[in-house]
User: Fold these one by one.
Assistant:
Number 1:
Amino acid sequence: MKIIAIGRNYAEHAKELNNPVPGVPVIFMKPDTALLKDNKPFYHPDFSEDIHHEIEIVIKVSKEGKHISEKFASNYFEEIAIGIDFTARDIQQRHKEKGLPWELAKAFDHSAAISNFVVKDKFADLQNINFKLDVNGIERQVGNTSLMLFSFDYIISFVSKYITLKKGDLIFTGTPKGVAKVNIGDRLEGYLENEKLLDFLIK
Ligand code: MG
């Protein structure tokens, strides 16, 4: 399986990092070794002084597809989860300045934390889902999918023009504003609507 991630999909987040709001989705990838599941702790790596949390809704692809039209994209996923796209912001900043790729900042081990998946039919409107991240019991990031620049269906259609999607692939769909540094000892709790699905420690 592969992990595809969308950057800058919420305008307020693009602005907080002084990035332009994109006209087409910004795409990057993480390897399967980036996965962190079952609310296991995230061990802070020593190569970065500035690892940020990015709470995101994650789509699980349910069947293979290429050149999927937006109209049929909803047939290609049945479940969603929430995840954290951990980002070494200091490394990313240095690489952005030099126009270099982001892998060292985005694709490192355990940089893709995911919760259990929930059947999408549970939600009345996929374009109006609330999600949030609390850090040490204090609300840190609040999002709603209505604020996405590119919808789930558009993302699936766009990505599948370039990259064949396979069953089990995951797509991180971008983070709302409020990204910040994590510190050893922090407790991260992620909610999809009112259900707490993520609850783990930074060690
Ligand atoms: Mg992200």
Number 2:
Amino acid sequence: MLIKVRKPWELREQDVTSQQLYVNRRQVIAGLGIAGAAAALPVSALAGAFDGAIKTDWGKDELPTSLKDITSYNNFYEFGTDKGDPKKYAHKLTTDPWSIKISGECAKPGTYALEDILKGQDVEERIYRLRCVEAWSMVVPWNGIQLSEILKKFEPTSKAKYVSFKTLYRPKEMWGQRRNFIDWPYEEGLRMDEAMHPLTMAAIGIYGDTIPNQNGAPIRLVVPWKYGFKSIKSIVEIEFTEKEPRTSWNIRLPREYGFYANVNPTVDHPRWSQAKERRIGDFFRTPTKMFNGYASEVASLYDGMDLRSFY
Ligand code: MTE
């Protein structure tokens, strides 16, 4: 019998499965519980690496964007600047073995294998809206771990006020890094309370399967109330810092991209309006919500801050 081992970037069932069907399948599985679902459905229907992920209520009423769109319309400048480039070139990236260097203000610095970091963690499914600063958006069913659960392991000290993240620098596999489009490697950062917020996630899967390379394999950040550029892909370094860390887009265009980058329809980008967005797959633009619709969860993090100057 020929068993085809699917590469993470190859598309599968969900490409051709309609969004509604996927939602229904999720509900069926959720209703049965994983053990029951496994018994009731053919193995092929449950082939994803994270089909056993804990279902959460996040985004349960959202209609997820198709896997095809999520994996073929990307920003991952290490592989080129066209939206289709990451899908074309990201298969060149070696994601196994993978380790992450932990440094700075914490009790347990070191270089850890990804398996060791993930060991014992519960993988959840959370459906989040992703709003790019370029005014397009998607709804992504992520599989991953609450970031706070990972960061806690390294015992950040009281001096850790921020946390910074870096993407892999490997121009041999990431041809975009041979051009000085960004001061590589891509880096991003969060304030510690943002990083520890229950909404912040380290994603390792999409639609129940391993995260495709073009979406940031093997592990990326997901911060749903901020513009997508904060959600850094393919992370190899995490540093706890006392001072606000450098961030790639702020270095490149400081007037356009600040450290906070909270989704805010009332503050326009210097070159375009942020009032509306186009959901990929939709024709019409819809109004953008404050904090991308997560205001009740996160607005209090910014009490007393002028959100116009902390853009
Ligand atoms: N991370 C790295 N390392 N390089 C990038 O170019 N692009 C960012 C973010 N993370 C980017 C990155 C931007 S601008 C967005 S909108 C999201 O990834 C896009 O994520 P997606 O391609 O999975 O939709």
